Amino acid sequence: MIDLNNTKKLAEFQPARDDAEIDLVEFLAILIDGKWIILWVTSLIFLLGVAKAFLDEPIYKADAILQVDDKPKILVGMKQLDDTYQGSLPVLAEVELIKSRKVLGEAIRNLNLDIEVRPKYFPIIGKTIASQFQKDSNESQSKSSLSDVSILAQYAWGGESIEIDTLSMPRSLRDKELFLQAGKPGYFQIIYDEQIILDGVVGELISKPIQEVEGVFAIRIMRLEANPGTHFTLKQFSENKAINLLKENLSVAEKNKLTGILELTLESKNPEMAVRVLNEIANIYVQQNVEHKYAEAHQTLEFLEEQLPILQKQKDEAINALNAYKNRKGSVDFTTETSNVLSDLVNLQTQTTLLEHRRDELRQTFTQSHPNIIAIDKQISRLKAQIQSRDNMIKGLPETQQVILGLSGDVQISSNLYNTLFDKAQALRVTKAGTVGDVRVIDYAIVPNTPIKPKKELIIVIALVIGFILGIAIVFIRKMLHRGMEDPDLIEKQLNVPVYATIIYSKNQEILNKKIDKPSARQNNESLLLAKSYGEDSAIESLRSFRTTLHFSLLDAKNNIILISGPGPNVGKSFVSANLAAVVADSGKKVLLIDADLRKGAIHKLLHVKRERGLSEIILNSISIKEATHSIPGASIDFIATGTLPPNPSELLLHERFGVLLEALTLQYDLIIVDSPPILAATDAAIISRFASATFMVIKAGLHTRRELDQSIKRFSQSGTNIKGIVFNGILETSSRYGYKYVYQYSYKNTK
After folding, report:
1. Residue 470 and residue 500 in one domain
2. Residue 441 in contact with residue 286, Cβ under 8 Å?
3. What is the DSSP string of 81-134?
4. Does residue 199 contact residue 207 with C-beta atoms inside 8 Å?
5. Lowest-pLDDT range, 527-531, 557-561, 681-685?
6. pLDDT on residue 73
7. Are 452 and 60 contacting, i.e. CB atoms less than 8 angstroms apart?
8. In a domain, 613, yes or no
9. How many other C-beta atoms can be found within 10 angstroms of the C-beta atom of residue 181?
């Protein structure tokens, strides 16, 4: 004897699950379900990466090495004769000087780097094609074959070259793009804003006032090789923009700290031009460094040469004054102490005078608040204080000794000062003649053999990784945006309604659906029921499982009527109703299938019967039950079609004769399956559910939101009907999310 309570518990029992395991299975299932999206996205990004790697123009890097010495150099064999120079600027200062407008601006002017002219290529692939044609032995033929097409004549297809010697644009045209169009051999035109502003001849300097831009346009092209009609883009940058563009690709840095070795690097699409620019910058900077050192020596020497005649005159006057006084007064002997005082006074006065000259020299370059000048002022103040103390000692001597001492001091001071400055001037003359600066070029730039960009292997690997990650992201974003419920376990948990069957989507049913409206299928009486045409289909196996569960669930039911409905259209409720009837009939039961969808019922097409003379006529009492019932031999079931579709289906189903009809039929059949309209589309399902012992709602995987299912259950509940269970239809067989549920599904086949 079967325990019905235990049966219910077994039917509704759900095994405990490990949330972490389910999360991992869900994660992997989403990835496997979206494997084709991931594959396509990865392939697309990978191909784009390959295209970028091979279509991007190669970038080359040239480098040069400079050395910054601690002290300035003079010609070989000459020594540094004085301490006029106190050492070179810090290395970081040298870096900034190299990148200054003074250096880069001169390099730009010398090499015409403010001029940019290049052939106009077909977008994206034009340059690649041109480079291949240029390598082709039949270059001219390849070019002409493309250039003959008028729409392509403006593009360069390989072998084009141009050399501009002079270019001067009005200020208003600087940094703007113009076009240079090659004409017949030896001629060209300048086009701006789709207007020809200048015609010229190759090799001649063309200068013409342009009224539209209020300025003179001058250009001289030394060489132009291109087919007539070929366009070149022409642009002259302003000085600031040209310098900024050069700075973007120029790098200057000390190779190792405290070595004084500077590395200059320049990146460019043209390796030869990169070498020329880098070597030009190095030469300009070395030359400017030499000129700067030369100017320093020259400026100091000029100052000394101005002071030497003055000091010579002061020395002569001091000697004459001393001799004249001695002639009048006679010779005077000094004590040892007085001689020492005189010697100290002369030294102090000489140092003071030299510091004052040094101060005047620095004042030509620095302001009064410069630290060097402030330090000299402090030294001068200390020396003057010492001189004052010596003067006080001299005041205690006899008057004659004081005068002679003062005159002798003036002679010695002027002589020492003159001799010191004379020696310094001589040293500066030698230094000026031999100065070569404190910067020298160790290695000039040479043409690089291989480009540094693009790094093809790296780009391809990165594209592959990005494509894979992007594909995964798209799969998960798609999953997040798709609000339909796809997990039967989640439906049971959230809706608190058991899922009685999970039906896999059948490709065989697609074949049968295409035959529904074909007359040949009706003439041949070909079965369109999946249960009869493809009895071993996985969907039918699921319905057989549903049949078993349904048998136990109806043991204590009030009658043998079950209702099949759904939230909305296109969920497969008619498919479930018809094939479930056939499956139950296979077990030896007498089954009646009623199409109660009096709005769009279409089960009659599957069974090759006419719609007319069906349920609506029975309710209207225009025909008998026997006249409306069709026996379907191929399926071993009886069927009542919708009949003529009435204008008022709900009112017709509310008629008492409908209830009487169902009650009479229950005595004749083991199971009655009623297919009804969707509950959210009409109230018909709620009306019919009052007469059924069990109501099942068919939902389609991924089609319904949680809110839609809640509303459907609520509609039935408001009519006093509780949903017995849910039939989860249309699960894709390739869906990994539910694959574990069907590991144990199998069917017996005859083997020979």
Report:
1. no
2. yes
3. -SS----PPPHHHHHHHHTSHHHHHHHHHHHTTTEEEEE-PPTTTHHHHHHHHH
4. no
5. 527-531
6. 43
7. yes
8. yes
9. 19
Compute, in degrees rounded to 10, the torsion defined by CA atoms 309, 313, 315, 316: 130
Q: Say whether both 529 and 572 belong to one domain.
A: yes
Strands 591-595 and 637-640: parallel
Please state the pTM of the whole predicted model.
Answer: 0.55
Q: For the chain, how many helices (H) and strands (E)?
A: 26, 20
Boundary-marking domain end, from 179, 211, 236: 236
Torsion sign over Cα 174, 177, 183, 185: positive
Give the neighbor-by-neighbor strand order of the sheet with 205-210: 161-168, 215-225, 205-210
Give the Cα separation of 455 and 459 in Å (integer).
6
Give 31-71 pLDDT, tens digit per residue: 887 889 999 999 999 999 998 888 888 899 999 999 887 55
Rounded distance between C-alpha atoms, residue 63 and residue 66, angstroms: 10
Q: How far apart are CA 355 and CA 364, in angstroms?
A: 15
Q: Token digits for 535?
A: 């009895």
For residues 470 and 381, give the distance between their C-alpha atoms in angstroms, rounded to a whole number.
77
- Whether residues 162 and 186 share a domain: the answer is yes
Structural domain boundaries, residue 152: 115-236
- Is 475 found in the same domain as 510? no
Peptide bond into 90 cis (omega under 30): no
**Is 699 in contact with 709 (CB distance < 8 Å)?**
yes
What string of DSSP letters covers 570-636?
SSSHHHHHHHHHHHHHHTT--EEEEE--TTT--HHHHHT--SSSSHHHHHTTSS-HHHHEEEETTTT
Within this chain, do residues 631 and 690 fall inside the same structural domain, yes or no? yes
Phi-psi region of 194 (alpha: psi -120 to 50; beta: other; left: phi over 0): left
Instruction: Give the model's pLDDT for residue 334.
Output: 54
The whole-number pLDDT of residue 746 equals: 36
What pLDDT was estimated at residue 579?
A: 92
Helix (H, G, I), strand (E, B) or coil at 542: helix
Joined together, the tokens standing for residue 88 give 């070179």
Within 364-398, residue ranges assigned H as helices are 371-394
**How many domains, in total, are found in the chain?**
3
The type of residue at 1 is M
Confidence class for position 669, pLDDT limits 50, 70, 90: very high
* Mean pLDDT across the chain: 79
End-of-domain residue from the set 236, 271, 295: 236
CA distance 512 to 197: 73
